[in-house]
Design a protein that fits this description.
Pfam families: Aldo_ket_red. This protein is an alpha/beta fold. It is built from eleven helices and ten strands.
């Protein structure tokens, strides 16, 4: 059983975002079946956010919680504004909003307490100490059990952890998204903070060829998925799939096993939260547990991250990658 700073969550969690309409239309019955299958398969950590589907994803998870609350370690997030004004702020982290957001999530989820409550994106107008101070009050009141941060820099993590212990940092980490290894992960390891890796399969890019994206697909918003960069990045996906074949496992299992190897090498407890709409994919992903990759596989995968064309976000300043560039530039 993998722990995040003492919170038992299992070796993998389930990322709920794909069950909102971010990669195209979905339906509630299939989404509920997928969530139930995840729990049946032994997953404990269910990860959602108030912004996914403008709150609909939390309500969906809430329907499952009404039947199976004791089986779930619940994680949700706040801070992304669902309907920002044109040209206005897209994130909020002021103490008043922290309280407003948590009450909204509790209502949609139908629960009295959230095990792991993440600050989804950093509001540049509010010192992170103020936001974490407000979250610490929720912990003292028993509304929130533990605090998480998403897409923070190493310096922001240090400052936040000085106010209240942080259980987990959640950021993108995969074979083709490795910027967090420079500073965030070493800092998390030193502080005893766990790491929750979202998009561990590269938003599907590492699993199967991605050549054309349908209308409504969230990946259209990411630079590395535009037509020109997709073509430039194609050899990365091809290498991943070739290495997986040589190892006798699927590309998804390779990507998840690689994260496990990296976590051990860098001294951080890592829990990936792959997202899917297909129950059989959950079983495939969980089968990565215990896989150890050969030295040849690790050597073949090592240089791929440096070859990626395109940042992992359109507004790179919103994520740790962009802000750490700014910090490094002085």
């Amino acid at each position: 059983m993998t722990e995040l700073a003492g919170l038992e969550v299992g070796e993998q969690g389930f990322g709920g975002m794909a069950l909102a309409e971010v990669y195209g239309p979905t339906d509630e019955a299939s989404a509920l079946a997928t969530l139930h299958h995840a729990l049946d398969a032994g997953i404990r950590l269910i990860d959602t956010a108030d912004v996914y589907g403008a709150g609909s994803n939390e309500r969906l998870v809430g329907r499952v919680l009404r039947e199976r609350r004791d089986e779930v370690v619940l994680a949700t997030k706040f801070g992304f504004l669902r309907d920002p004004a044109p040209g206005g702020p897209r994130f909020r982290g002021d103490p008043a909003y922290v309280r407003e957001a948590v009450q909204g999530s509790l209502g949609r989820l139908g629960v009295e307490r959230i095990e792991l409550y993440y600050y989804h994106r950093v509001d540049p107008r509010v010192p992170i100490e103020e936001t974490v101070g407000a979250l610490a009050e929720l912990v003292a009141e028993g509304v929130v059990e533990r605090i998480g941060l998403s897409e923070v820099t190493a310096a922001e993590l240090e400052r936040a952890h000085a106010v209240h212990p942080i259980t987990a940092v959640q950021s993108e980490w995969s074979i083709w998204s490795r910027d967090v290894e420079t500073a965030v992960i070493p800092t998390a390891a030193r502080l005893g903070v766990g790491f929750v890796a979202y998009s561990p399969l590269g938003r599907g890019f590492l699993v199967s060829p991605v050549t054309q994206l349908p209308e409504g697909d969230l990946r259209r918003n990411f630079p590395r998925f535009d037509a020109e960069r997709l073509a430039a990045n194609a050899p990365i996906g091809e290498t991943v799939r070739a290495v997986a074949e040589a190892e006798g496992i699927t590309p998804a299992q390779l990507a998840l096993a690689w994260l496990g190897e990296q976590g051990r090498a860098l001294g951080v407890d890592v829990v990936p939260i792959p997202s899917t709409r297909r129950p059989e994919r959950i079983d495939e992903n969980l089968a990565a547990s215990g896989i150890r990759l050969s030295a040849a596989a690790l050597a073949a995968l090592e240089p791929l991250g440096a070859r990626v064309a395109g940042d992992r976000a359109r507004h790179v300043g919103d994520i740790s990658q962009g802000r750490e560039r700014t910090e490094a530039a002085g």
